[in-house]
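Collaborator request, handled under Task 6.
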Amino acid sequence: MIEWRKSHLEYERNNKKAVLFVMADDTKNCDEVAEYLETMYPELRDKVLVIHTKNNGDINESDSKQTQDELKRLRDAANNIDHNQYLAVVSVLMLRE
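Structure tokens returned to the collaborator:
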């Protein structure tokens, strides 16, 4: 976090954005890391994007409409990270590609 804060301040002076990426080993730990970041670091409150996949890393895009909509929202948020409120991304597998 110390290094991210330094980078964040430096990039902010240049109208750019430093994003903290955290890879977790499973969805439970992913949620716990996101909660920890938002609790311990006020500058990250409501600014942590959490992305889950199934345990094997697959996403079944034939799931319900609600699941598909949520997946699209998460992908859009990740793809547009420079232009939204998120300062951190906590993910399980999905962004390793």
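The cover message to the collaborator said: "Residues 2-96 form one domain. The chain has three helices and three strands. Please let us know whether this matches your experimental observations."
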